[in-house]
């Protein structure tokens, strides 16, 4: 690892806190909090440093996705530390998409089989519960502390240099800098990660790319009705797909819905173009006629809430020796159209746990001897296992934007879903719809991407069959699909 040449601990503007070096998790977001539970459970002394104030004591402001869809990979990771049941208490099952057309008619499309659902959870509620649990399992969380880099540990008098590191922290409230000793660092500080920047600056041939969509998003609100009920069907994800843009709504436990409008930043129909109350009102009334009556604060929210951007970040490697590991959005930020960013980050935690278990055994921390080499192997195996899957879900997430905003209203897409559902029910060993592979299984994302591409090619041929609209549920179509599967095997 390259040593950072910046200020060493103990110089004029840093002060060293003395203690046995812990594992340090940077960022007490969703992934950092869960990861610290896994680390503490293994007996590692874990401390979290979080840039923001303690959100459990703060009012949450609008802006960054108030609720999220939690699905099987996320549940599995929460189950791994025994907290899934607790979280389920604040989650609302969404069994399918409720597609709203431009006249206000609705059509329900189930996500999977009977009994399958994705779950709407409050980001803040989930994060607060995870922080509570992290503390309960023994992790200390330091708030208002922003990670800015690392410095090498100084050699104690008369001894050779230790290979511990010091994290440079800046206190958000006072601006005071400090240096915190660390045995290892887990960078879970999100899409605009300072830990990632540090890995980048310290690593030769570090691969990095970031790609922004031309689209932004803005959160809006559908409050509960006067009688306290939900204003729309509760157990589904509502979509107003309008071809080149869309609005979605997810239910909250207070009976409101959080809506998210995805629209180009610039151009004829864009956030930039909707620059007066009159234009915005006309746009909403014409485009989402059934939503406007249940959005009493629409215009206020539209102009008061921020317009945020959508980024995909890819980078590699995710580690430096046995010292630093990136996980969650810090390693792989993706756009939200498959509802998988957090789920993928949570899966990082369960995969890391599997690799630790392989090297260290069940619930046991490594012996001091050989520890460094073992951790290096753990980090290397983790990044090698996760990188292809992170790349795959990044691609799938971008592709799913077209499906959500446009295809869901096309008759051929609806027919495709019906054919797939029927065939998959008849031959579950041969065909799992792509959405189900991603959402209702823990099949590696890269395998789901590959199988999905093969199935898509088959479906294109099936949909091109003359008279498919009439015979989609026939034995003939079933046989054709089996034949095409056989032909394209391997
Ligand atoms: C609009 C939208 C909708 C989404 N919907 C879904 C969904 O339905 N399902 C899903 O699975 N995913 C969804 N996602 C993705 C999901 O939000 C992210 O994947 C998830 O939040 C990543 O968690 P994280 O802990 O890695 O990062 P974050 O949640 O961003 O947490 C990072 C933490 O690090 C802290 N931090 C940042 N910098 C520093 C620093 N220098 N020092 C110390 N602390 C720092 C931050 O304050 C924060 O607390 C959505 C994302 C968006 C934008």
Alpha carbon gyration radius: 24 Å
The mean pLDDT is 91
Each distinct ligand: flavin-adenine dinucleotide
- Give the CA-based shape: globular
State the strand order across the main sheet. Answer: 6-5-14-15-16-13-17
Major sheet, described briefly?
Answer: 7 strands, mixed
| Portion in helices | 25-40%
Outline the low-pLDDT stretches: 1-18
The first-level CATH class of the largest domain is given as Alpha Beta
**Structural class of the helices, strands and pairings?**
alpha/beta
Q: What's the number of structural domains?
A: 3
Treating each run of at least 4 consecutive H or I residues as one helix, how many helices?
14
The count of β-strands is 19
Superfamily (CATH H level) name of the largest domain: FAD/NAD(P)-binding domain
Describe this structure in words.
There is one protein chain. By secondary structure, this protein is α/β, with parallel strands linked by helices. The chain has 3 domains: 23-93 and 121-210 and 312-400, FAD/NAD(P)-binding domain (3-Layer(bba) Sandwich); 211-310; 410-487, no CATH class. Helix content is 37%, strand content 22%. It has helices at residues 30-41, 72-80, 84-88, 123-136, 194-202, 277-287, 298-304, 341-360, 371-405, 411-426, 434-439, 445-463, 468-471, 475-487, and strands at 23-26, 46-49, 67-70, 91-94, 96-100, 106-110, 118-122, 140-142, 145-152, 165-171, 177-182, 184-187, 207-222, 237-241, 246-251, 257-264, 308-316, 319-320, 324-326. Strand 15 (246-251) and strand 16 form a beta hairpin. The model is unreliable at 1-18 (pLDDT under 50). Flavin-adenine dinucleotide binds at residues 26-32, 49-52, 64-65, 68-69, 146-147, 188-190, 194, 217, 260, 328-330, 336, 339-343, 345.
